[in-house]
Amino acid sequence: MKKAVNNLFLLITLFVFCSCVIREPETKPDDTRVGLQMFNYSETSIFYMVRCFDKMLFLNSYINKTDSAKNIFRKQYFQQYKFTQPTVNKWFIKRETDGDTIYTIYTDGNSIHKIGSIWKLKEKNDSILYTITCKSANKWEIEALNKRVESWNVNAKITINCIDSFAPVMYQTSNFVIKGGGILTSNNENKEQQQLQINYSIKDSLIHRKPIWICTSGSLDLEVKEFDTGHTEKAVGKYYNIERNVNSLEITYHNKVNTYTNRINTSYLW
């Protein structure tokens, strides 16, 4: 069993994900490292979707302002970017410095707050869209189908519900509850590597409290599987003790528990 666990750790670290946090173990030895890697990858896939949701919220607010107010709004929050509309219901978010398109957003002509509205977002150099559907007042469903992120293919669906009494303008300025789950599959371009699959589900709703980006509470159930051997491992990751942009993460794996410091990397947000 120990050999299988060590082999799994070596495999899972080969599939690099651009994690949004830097984690430091507070206890030694780090015998929950497989669970930590599973959590890192799963959490990052969630926040890729949340990041896209934030851009759509901001664009929706931008569209509904007067021309003079649009420029003030953009400079206040995202002065390094500009917004252009090449055709009806299609928008580009571009870098101000070089005009490079970072995101393409497709609206359906309705406000993102209108029940039944469907918006889509495409990231730079990617043909796969994130789809966001307004399900009810202040509640959205975000879906990623076969979305490639680094060495993983992501299929995930989450719901995000604003718990404020007003409609959100941006993710960072509102409070949200996040539920759902997803599957990450290694794209296995290197045929010598075993293919892995990580299944995650939000066990206790993730709670986001403004004005920070990371969640303030909640937990994930996690499972990783080696396709060739059928070997599986399970873990649980739980947030707690939030202070500004730092929190603690508790990983339970093989009945062992370790705590990690979780510091957000703000360069990830765009």
Folded structure, characterized:
The protein has 270 residues and is of the alpha+beta class. It has 3 helices and 14 strands. The chain has one domain. The protein is 21% helix and 46% strand. It has a 14-stranded antiparallel beta sheet with strand order 1-14-13-12-11-10-9-8-7-6-5-4-3-2. Helix 1 runs parallel beside helix 2 (33-63). It is globular, with a radius of gyration of 19 Å. The model is unreliable at 1-6, 18-22 and 265-270 (pLDDT under 50).
Properties at a glance:
alpha+beta; disordered N terminus; disordered C terminus; 270 residues; 14 strands
User: What string gives the helices and strands in order?
Assistant: HEHHEEEEEEEEEEEEE
What proportion of the residues is helical, as a percent range?
10-25%
The shape, in one word, is globular
Largest sheet: 14 strands, antiparallel
Unreliable stretches: 1-6, 18-22, 265-270
Query: Mean pLDDT, rounded to whole units?
Result: 83
Q: Give the number of DSSP strands.
A: 14
Briefly characterize the structure.
With 270 residues, this protein is of the alpha+beta class. The protein is built from three helices and 14 strands.
Strand and helix map with partners:
Layout: H1 2-14, E1 21-25, H2 33-63, H3 67-78, E2 81-87, E3 90-95, E4 101-106, E5 118-123, E6 129-136, E7 139-149, E8 152-162, E9 176-186, E10 196-208, E11 217-226, E12 232-243, E13 246-253, E14 256-264
Antiparallel strand pairs: 1-14, 2-3, 3-4, 4-5, 5-6, 6-7, 7-8, 8-9, 9-10, 10-11, 11-12, 12-13, 13-14
